[in-house]
Amino acid sequence: MNKLLTLLLAFFPITSFAGQDFEPADQNPITLNTAKALSKMDRENEIAKSEDAKRKTIEYYEKRKQRSVDVKRDFERLILRNWDVPTGSMGKTVKVLIELNDDGTVKSVTFDSSDPVFNESIKQAIENSAPFPLPNDYVLRQMSKKMTSIFKAR
């Protein structure tokens, strides 16, 4: 037992603490280094979380964008199936702005073509295709209610 006490006193002499004031924890180099390391880890974790959130947001909007493209393509296919192209219109194109109501019915149709027969044929195809099935997702639904398409008579 005396040997153990002698050994302990050799490594931790009582006089080494006598008359010394201990540094506050916020000035202790070991505590400061530990705090800095933890702070750095916290910052790195926050950055990683932020990057992950950004990635998920981008993925979400990319999926929504792709879904919007799919909805528009489906609407265009439906219109093309219902389009009775007037004779003598082969090769003509028309740009159409279609606005839909909340229930998928046609609110308005605007053309850039000056051919009234051609315009009426595409308008009739659009009306015959309604009501259009709108997505359940609110933002996607709002996006789908207004679309511009170009149709070419074949």
From TrEMBL:
The keyword Signal applies. Pfam families: TonB_2. Keywords: Signal. It comes from the Bacteria. Residues 1-18 form the signal peptide. This is TonB C-terminal domain-containing protein. It comes from Acinetobacter stercoris. The lineage of its organism: Bacteria, Pseudomonadati, Pseudomonadota, Gammaproteobacteria, Moraxellales.
